[in-house]
Amino acid sequence: MTQLLLFNITNGLIIGAFYVLMALGLSLILNLSNVINFAHGGFLVIGGYIAYTITPYVGFWGGLLIAPPLTAVIGFIVERVLIRPLYGRDPLYSLLLTFGLAFIIEDGTRFFWGAQGKPVTVPAFLATPLSYNFFFITGYRLFMVTVVVIAVALLFIFLRYTRLGVRIRAGTLDLETVAALGINVRMLRSLNFAAGIFLAGLSGVLAAGQLGLEPTMGTGLLMPSFIAIIVGGVGSLTGTLLGGLLIGVASGLTAVFFPAASEAIMYVLMAVVLLIRPRGLLGEEGMMT
Amino acid sequence: MSGEQSRKLIVLAAIWLALVFAPYWMAPLGGYTALATRVLVLGLAAMSVNFLLGFTGVLSFGHAAYFGLGAYGTGLALKFLTTSTPLSLVLGMLLGGIAGGLLGALIVRRRGVYFAMVTIAFGQVFYYIAFQWSSLTGGDDGLRGFSRQPLNFGFFQIDILSNTNYFYYFVLFCFALAVGAMGIILRSPFGHAMIAIRENERRARFLGIPVERHIWIAFTLSCFFIGFAGALYALVNNFADPKGLHYSQSGDFVMMAVMGGMRTFWGPLLGAAVFVVLQDYLSSVTINWMSFVGLLFVLVVLFFPRGLLGFIRRKSAA
């Protein structure tokens, strides 16, 4: 029993780490640009497929290093061309646009790479279990979590200590003042969007190694990321981090006792949080509510 | 009667005439009656979404859930409870509307994108329920094993099951009831308060309009309307599909409303007509129809944000 519990908690944490990576990217974009990026799952898929395509030439490590920045560049261009014209308008429009974009990306990957799932091989030393008793902790899972932790830490350091990061945080609070101080807000939003997409691309590469690749894989990860943001509180990245881990572990634990409800528990959790604390766990009153 | 008023009456008469004679003029144009029925039902759904989106200014992106609940409610009622088609419709509508009212109470304090996100996430709950509870709902395969029953008036029957034209007129009758109710609500003092909230929420609040309660009522009403549309949709297909509960279906509804013209009463119906016909055509000519639908989304948002009717209205005003 203990082992089963431990197995599912670990599972939950690993899944939660994914949600966190996705949700942090979504959250970054949402906070600064007020855009719900429905295509975020699509960018995850793009990241994964780019890694799959270049792995034969540059190896797994090369793919891990190159694919996320390439995805970010695509995100940068998409923001420039499609999303920037919509900033002055009702958020409805950016929502619909990214929604359509998600369709195009899903169909496009199916067109280019085929509807069949693609296996992605990870280096052999990562694929073996670490110990017999804890067979579920393969090296790759540990590696994934490490990468997520490093990425999240770097993101927070970036936002806390670099000039660009400080500007992004300031822009989340009051974009008009930031603009009045002479900062190029358009560029800021583009870079911020690209940073969010970078995280999506990174999750894509990591997910590819664990789950294999499918054109529809992004859609399944999108909803939990939404819930992570809502539970954690819109406007707070720390909240998003907490929310992602929380729903990951909650659904992992529910899988032990009542497998059919492992997905539903996230929604229950969200309903409870909204009832008790409508702004989310760490959300600040008045932020985008 | 002023010119403005008589022009409105003429347009209204034209719309209803076109709807009443749809089975006769559609066939020569290459359409078929069942397509017209689908346009009506999805048009009603888009109008219900627009009731909230266009007239209260609240963006719900999870309305498919209540549409789907209406469909499942009607399907289950016909399968297990009753052989009366109208009764099953009412039950489906109640299921969608009541679920919407309950969840609505939880989320009306949110605004803007946050509201949209919460409605999406809650909408997905019902998708998972329908997907997981396969013993009742048929899971991924959808709910089968029921069909619409002939209308029984005691001394005579109308066979809406096998005669597609009769069924079209039955749906048109239901559509007229719902749309009539919608029009009356929008003309009532409550409807004006809704528009006041859309135009300036803060001001509406200062004027003493209980904004949260009004938004909740508008949300619930629109859930009843879309639940009714979903109930009709179950009759159209004799089938309830879990995809009808999914948020991508909500996206389609919002798209129909935007494409037709959000700020207009009839726009969503036009949007639904264009959307349904286009999808029907695209899926018959290419397997990549998803890309084209996505492209349509992008193009409408970038170049046609006011929708077809908004565009026409602006042109005639200029």
Total domain modules of chain B:
2
Distance between the termini of chain B: 24 Å
CATH topology of chain A: ABC transporter involved in vitamin B12 uptake, BtuC
From the spread of the alpha carbons, the general shape of chain B counts as globular
> Residue ranges of chain A: pLDDT <50 for 5 or more in a row?
none
Q: What is the percentage of strand-forming residues of chain B?
A: under 5%
Task: Report mean pLDDT of chain B, rounded to a whole number.
Answer: 86
Q: How much is the radius of gyration of chain B in Å?
A: 19 Å
Number of helices of chain B: 15
Number of strands of chain A: 0
Describe the model.
The complex is a heterodimer of chains A (289) and B (318). With 289 residues, chain A is mainly α. Chain A has helices spanning 2-33, 40-83, 91-113, 124-127, 139-161, 163-173, 175-180, 185-211, 217-232, 237-257, 264-276. Chain A has a single domain (2-276), classed as ABC transporter involved in vitamin B12 uptake, BtuC (Orthogonal Bundle), CATH 1.10.3470. Chain A is globular. Chain A starts with a helix and ends in a 13-residue tail after the last helix. Chain B is mainly α. Chain B folds into two domains: 1-31; 41-317, no CATH class. Helix content of chain B is 75%, strand content 1%. In chain B, strands 1-2 form a two-stranded antiparallel ribbon. Classes of the chains: A mainly alpha (289), B mainly alpha (318).
